[in-house]
RNA sequence: GGCGCGUUCGUCUAGCGGCUAGGACGUGGCCCUCUCAAGGCCAAAACACGGGUUCGAUUCCCGUACGCGCUACCA
């Protein structure tokens, strides 16, 4: 039994942005570490220099911080097991390749990519499995040395046992058995001197004292190779936990083209980190009771790998929107202002009048799913004339009693003091008494005249916030 | 093709041999209300299929089907 303190890692490769699937993996690692009183490492896996994207690491760091996922060790904060960027650890990988070579657990392969491609094509054409034919595995010592003297480029491959099988335990999936014969002699060190994922991952996880490897299910098939590596080195493998995939609506692996997959896209659209984290946490995990709304701290307390499910989960934007609306509605007005600020200004709202701005936000909060929704809600409150927006609104103004109501209200609003929702409401009541018009027939024409819309928040408050001058002008326009 | 993993309402899921199969999103209806949003209540909606095991299977086992993943000198 492993009694060492829990250490987990999130190990993305810096190829651009943080994928929402990556966010969930990072989150589960974080939650598990917190739940277990352990620590979390961030490691940058940049061994493929061809795919490296400038600025990707910075972007990753900002995005994780935005989501509230704090790592304990990593490129930004350092730590006792650094460096935390793989391209700065190449000597370690090469050294360990030599170790494997010396133990006869690996061998040099001088096949060129062209040869390998051709061989693969041939195998496919013959309807056989495409796998490395292991021709270099049989090379004699002298032959290898001759080629090395000639300066031929080579890769280092893992010497996979030819028969038998191996098993490992996955916390989420249970016991998994793989026949050695279906495992390829995996390349460990590329001819450019960089390690492949498999080698770097195993070496780093070992030296960074990682106890639990929590990663996406796409890694499940290659875990056998990793286990073989741990055995070859004589190291204790970590506990594995392979998470179910996040899926598109058609149940394929979540990808671009079918919607946004970058966390920064959701951030840009005004989704709150709390909402995204809450939503994504529940994709593949549940607390075992009916709770749905969780702060990240509550998630830390509730999380366990035992409650992670096995099947992939469709990323349902509608449910994310619901979470966002839930959080948006309960934000203090100050935060709402911060979130909606850009759209307020765009809508021509005078944000310097903070009392009015706050009142508007409080009034409209329940109408928002994302902050951008505020724009449409704000239209009636901006300066300028309004026109009935649809047939329903037009009809309300055309009703025979409409003009009676509006004519009766106009002078009253001119003189009502103070200009407040309560007093405006009183005036509307006076109109009701005087004209005998009530209910919908009374309110609808006023609402449409003032806002151009048939629907909206309570009329008294709406009128108060539109302001006396605008209200009077709009009433005059409507009866003209 | 091979190997691996998976399969409860449209979606996220609860269930760990005996339940009217529960909750949430979405959908529909009702209530509240001048209207809408929010909120409350109600409704429709699922155990992939076939064999076993068992007194009894959504649950355990084996097949089949379907889906997904992997099968690179990418991660």
Describe what you observe in this structure.
The protein is mainly alpha-helical. The chain is 46% helix and 9% strand. The chain is built from 20 helices and eleven strands. Strands 3-4-7 form a three-stranded antiparallel beta sheet. A two-stranded parallel ribbon has the order 1-2. The protein has a two-stranded antiparallel ribbon with strand order 5-6. α16 runs antiparallel to α20 and α18 runs parallel beside α19 (459-466). The chain is elongated, with a radius of gyration of 32 Å. 32% of the residues are buried. The chain binds one RNA strand of 75 nucleotides through α4, β6, α6, β11 and α11.
In short:
By secondary structure, this protein is mainly alpha-helical.
Strand adjacency order, main sheet: 3-4-7
Task: Write down the oligomeric state.
Answer: single chain
Task: Provide the low-confidence segments as ranges.
Answer: none
General form: elongated
Beta-strand fraction estimate: 5-15%
Main β sheet profile: 3 strands, antiparallel
Radius of gyration, in Å, reads 32 Å
N- and C-termini, Cα separation: 85 Å
Number of strands: 11
> Average pLDDT, to the nearest integer?
94
User: Roughly how much helix do the residues carry, as a percent range?
Assistant: 40-55%
The SS-based structural class is: mainly alpha
Number of helices: 20
List keywords for this structure.
480 residues, mainly alpha, 3-stranded antiparallel β-sheet, two-stranded parallel ribbon, 20 helices, 46% helix, RNA-binding
């Amino acid at each position: 039994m492993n009694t060492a303190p829990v250490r987990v890692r999130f190990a993305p490769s810096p190829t651009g942005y943080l994928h929402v699937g990556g966010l969930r993996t990072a989150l589960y690692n974080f939650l598990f570490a917190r739940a277990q009183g352990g620590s979390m490492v961030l490691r940058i896996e940049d061994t493929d220099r061809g795919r490296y994207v400038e600025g990707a690491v910075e972007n990753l760091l900002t995005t994780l911080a935005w989501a509230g996922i704090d790592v304990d060790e990593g490129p930004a904060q350092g730590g006792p097991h650094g460096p935390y960027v793989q391209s700065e650890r190449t000597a370690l990988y090469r050294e360990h390749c030599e170790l494997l070579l010396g133990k006869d657990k690996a061998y040099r392969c001088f096949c060129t990519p062209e040869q390998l491609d051709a061989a693969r094509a041939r195998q496919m054409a013959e309807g056989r499995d495409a796998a490395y034919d292991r021709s270099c595995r049989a090379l004699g010592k002298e032959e290898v040395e001759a080629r090395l003297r000639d300066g031929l480029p080579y890769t280092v491959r893992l010497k996979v046992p030819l028969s038998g099988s191996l098993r490992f335990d996955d916390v989420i999936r249970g016991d998994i058995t793989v026949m050695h014969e279906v495992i390829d002699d995996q390349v460990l060190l590329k001819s450019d001197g960089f390690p492949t994922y498999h080698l770097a991952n195993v070496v780093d996880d070992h030296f960074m004292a990682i106890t639990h490897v929590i990663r996406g299910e796409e890694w499940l098939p290659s875990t056998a190779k990793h286990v073989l590596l741990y055995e070859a080195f004589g190291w204790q493998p970590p506990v594995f936990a392979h998470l179910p995939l996040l899926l598109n609506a058609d149940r394929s692996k979540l990808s671009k083209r079918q919607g946004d997959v970058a966390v920064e896209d959701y951030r840009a659209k005004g989704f709150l980190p709390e909402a995204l984290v809450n939503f994504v946490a529940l994709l593949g995990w549940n607390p075992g009771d009916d709770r749905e709304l969780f702060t990240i701290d509550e998630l830390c307390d509730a999380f366990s790998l035992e409650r992670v499910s096995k099947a992939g989960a469709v990323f349902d934007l509608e449910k994310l929107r619901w979470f966002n609306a839930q959080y948006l509605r309960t934000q203090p007005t100050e935060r709402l202002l911060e979130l909606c600020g850009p759209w307020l200004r765009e809508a021509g709202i005078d944000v310097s009048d903070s009392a009015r701005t706050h009142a508007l936000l409080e009034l409209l909060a329940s109408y928002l799913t994302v902050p951008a929704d505020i724009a449409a809600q704000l239209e009636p409150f901006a300066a300028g004339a309004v026109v009935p927006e649809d047939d329903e609104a037009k009809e309300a103004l055309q009703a025979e009693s409409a003009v009676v109501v509006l004519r009766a209200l106009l002078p009253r609003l001119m003189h009502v003091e103070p200009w407040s929702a309560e007093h405006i409401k009183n005036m509307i009541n006076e109109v009701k008494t005087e004209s005998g018009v009530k209910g919908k027939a009374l309110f609808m024409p006023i609402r449409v005249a003032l806002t151009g819309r048939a629907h909206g928040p309570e009329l008294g408050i709406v009128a108060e916030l539109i302001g006396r001058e605008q209200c009077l002008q709009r009433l005059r326009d409507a009866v003209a």
